[in-house]
Every structure is written in structure tokens, then in C-alpha cells.
Amino acid sequence: MALRDYWELTKPRLSLLSVITALVGYMAADSQRDGSVFLSLLIGTSLAAGAAGALNQWLEREVDRHMARTRDRPLPSEAISPQAALTFGLALGIAGVTLVWLGANPLAGALTLATLVSYLLVYTPLKRVTAWNTLIGAVPGALPPLIGWAAAQGQIAPLGWILFGILFCWQIPHFMAIAWLYREDYAQGGFVMSTVTDPSGQAAARQSLAHSLILLGISLLPSLLGYTSWLLYGLVALICGLGYFWTAFRFWRVGGEQRTPASRKLFLASIAYLPFLLGALVIDRWLIG
């Protein structure tokens, strides 16, 4: 049982996204930036995100054995026992929620707990029940900015909810691209993804196109409502939003064998979108707003 196996159990890349978006919410709130609160948020959300990854893998350990992309994970490969993974995940979750609750405030702690519960007990089982699981799972994925905002202010302002909307809509094209690329794996694992129920990919493409368009509108709200400037954030949001929409449009427009390269481009666009947009938001709020 190497430390590397426990590290992999936390799904570090996915966990990092949750932590970063929580910190963005905190910094965008333009608070007094209390060092102890920031540290509690950073460590607490890191622990909670790691718990989500570990407990998700514990819940899906049998399913992961049937998929090529997951069969080498610590639990299917038996590098870590299910009992050890469960204990590890629960310990991380309890520590993470407690640290955010006590180090920041109860609202931030409650939102951290809600993220864990909705991800593990709602989204995870629904992946084998309904193709709507992606939309439902986008809720816990969009909660981290609210955790950060609550940690900064003890309440959630309109800009915090706009961040929630941005993260919610961003996830749909991102995960639809992944669902298309790994549709055969998901089918073998028994996951009811839209790319499994609709092998043509049109359903996934329509959802991607619709949410990328909604995202473009929501992402411009901070500048439209005066929370950020048009000079920096507004311009970046417009350029990034149009680029993301264009790749989603291409994913929707093409068919057959062309859909796979289009989905890869959509996935790469989704990866590029968030750092530029969120970075511009924080810089704008700190330097211009």
C-alpha cells in the first residue's frame, strides 16, 4: 500500500478543480482575505474533495473493474482494500467538513457537507439509473464557488450565484465530450450516459450546444451588472464563451466518425476555458473592480 495509491484514490486532478473554484469564490467575494480563513478553506476543501474521490471509488469499485480506463485504480487492482479506502475517505470527509465549518463559518461547512452528500449519495448511484445524471451531478460540481463565497462573507451574494451558474453550465459540454470519448467503457460499466442511450451522440451534442450558449450569457452577467469591468473580464468572457460555443457547435454539427475528433476539441476547449475566465474574474475584482 504505497502512498501513491492513496493519492490516486483522492482523484487529485478532479479534486484540484474543486479546490481552485472554491478559492476563486473566496477571492472574488472581495473579502478582507483573512489568512486563517483562507488556510482553513484551502485545507478543508482539499480534504473534502479527496474524500469525495475516495468514497466515489469505494462505491464504484466493482463497476471500475469492467472499464479499461478505471480497472487499474487502487481498488480494482487490489492495491488498497475496500475497508482501508472507506476508512480513509470517511476520515478525510469528516476532517474537511469540520475544518471548513470551524475555520470559516457554519454556512461554508454546511455547503461542503452538501457537496459531499449530493455527489456521493445522489449523483453516484444515478449514473446507473438515468441519463439525467450529468445534469444532476453538475450541482455538486458547481457548489465549491459558493463554499468559498460563504467562507469569505458568511452569506452568498448574487455574484456567487452567477459563479454557480457558470460552473454548472461549463460542466455539461465538458462531461458530454468525455462521455462520447469513453462511451464504450461506460456501456461496459453499466452507466446510463446519454452517449449510451443515444449512440448517435446527438443528445449529448444538443445538450453541449445549449449549455455552451447559456454559459455565454451567464458569463457576461458580472460585467452587465457592474461587478466587473468590460475591459478585462467582460472581454475575456466574450472571447472564451464564443470559442467554447463554437467547439460545441462543431460537436453538434458533425456526425459519424467526425464526432470523435470534434469531441476531443470540445474537451480541450473546456480545459482552457476555466483558467482564463476565472483568472480574469479574480484579477478584475482585485485590480479594477
From TrEMBL:
Keyword Plastid: no
Gene Ontology, cellular component aspect: plasma membrane
Reactions the enzyme catalyzes: heme b + (2E,6E)-farnesyl diphosphate + H2O = Fe(II)-heme o + diphosphate
Enzyme class: transferase
EC number: 2.5.1.141
Role played: Converts heme B (protoheme IX) to heme O by substitution of the vinyl group on carbon 2 of heme B porphyrin ring with a hydroxyethyl farnesyl side group.
Family designation: Belongs to the UbiA prenyltransferase family. Protoheme IX farnesyltransferase subfamily.
PANTHER family: PROTOHEME IX FARNESYLTRANSFERASE, MITOCHONDRIAL
HAMAP family: CyoE_CtaB
NCBIfam families assigned: cyoE_ctaB
Other noteworthy facts: Carbon 2 of the heme B porphyrin ring is defined according to the Fischer nomenclature.
Name recorded for this polypeptide: Protoheme IX farnesyltransferase
Organism of this sequence: Cerasicoccus arenae
Lineage, broadest ranks: Bacteria, Pseudomonadati, Verrucomicrobiota, Opitutia, Puniceicoccales
